Q: What sequence folds into this?
């Protein structure tokens, strides 16, 4: 595995992102429930589809509150979020999430006061919330967490950082100051989307090509770097 701090320094220097590039990032600092809904809608779908589903829901409800979601018939909710895919399953999930959110009386202040570890356990107990979703919420609240999506997981695997979510997240956090976690999370996503793509990664123009084991394999013509 290459020096991870060096890798992150290069990505930090060469990749630029704006909050407008990522729908989830633009919601940080706003309503906690709206952020949770947006992240749940983004699971296993494209940003474009998730954004469309979220915007349709907001057009119908105005502010997306637990009470407003519970006030919708499940069928109508499913139709509103259809663009995100798996709309019936997501509708049931959002209904359950709204109920549990109200029961737990969640607020950003309550989560922040709990600290990252306890807040993460609480979030993981909510319907539809897995490790990545919980860590996105924590990172948006300024708590120490490094969400690992499919793009970051792919980059980490090719670099030899690790294959297991918790291992990758921990190593990235260990290599960065806490105040940079979410920013580098966004930069790694963009790097994975535009350079270290799932198919035919652009190793020739990659700023990490001299450090990446998968790039070296590709250069030798093994094909392993382009198939992962």
A:
């Amino acid at each position: 595995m290459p020096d991870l701090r060096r890798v992150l320094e290069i990505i930090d220097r060469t990749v630029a992102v704006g909050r407008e590039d990522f729908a989830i990032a633009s919601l940080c600092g706003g309503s906690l429930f709206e952020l949770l809904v947006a992240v749940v809608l983004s699971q296993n779908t494209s940003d474009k589809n998730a954004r469309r589903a979220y915007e349709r829901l907001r057009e119908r409800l105005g502010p997306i509150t637990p009470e407003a979601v519970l006030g919708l018939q499940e069928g109508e909710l499913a139709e509103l979020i259809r663009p995100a895919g798996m709309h019936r399953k997501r509708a049931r999930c959002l209904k359950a999430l709204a109920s549990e959110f109200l029961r737990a009386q969640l607020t950003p202040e309550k989560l922040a006061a709990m600290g990252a570890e306890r807040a993460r356990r609480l979030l993981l107990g909510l319907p539809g919330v897995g490790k990545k979703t919980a860590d996105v919420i924590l990172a948006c609240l300024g708590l120490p967490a490094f969400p690992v999506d499919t793009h970051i997981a792919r980059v980490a695997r090719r670099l030899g950082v690790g294959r297991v979510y918790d291992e990758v997240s921990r190593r990235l956090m260990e290599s960065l100051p806490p105040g940079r976690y979410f920013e580098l999370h966004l930069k790694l996503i963009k790097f994975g989307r535009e350079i270290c793509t799932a198919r035919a990664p652009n190793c020739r123009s990659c700023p990490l090509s001299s450090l990446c084991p998968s790039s070296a394999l590709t250069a030798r013509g093994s094909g392993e770097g382009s198939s992962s």
Remarks:
- The radius of gyration is 19 Å.
- The chain has two domains: 4-19+146-227, 31-140.
- The domain at 4-19+146-227 is CATH 1.10.1670.10 (Endonuclease Iii, domain 2).
- The chain has a mean pLDDT of 88.
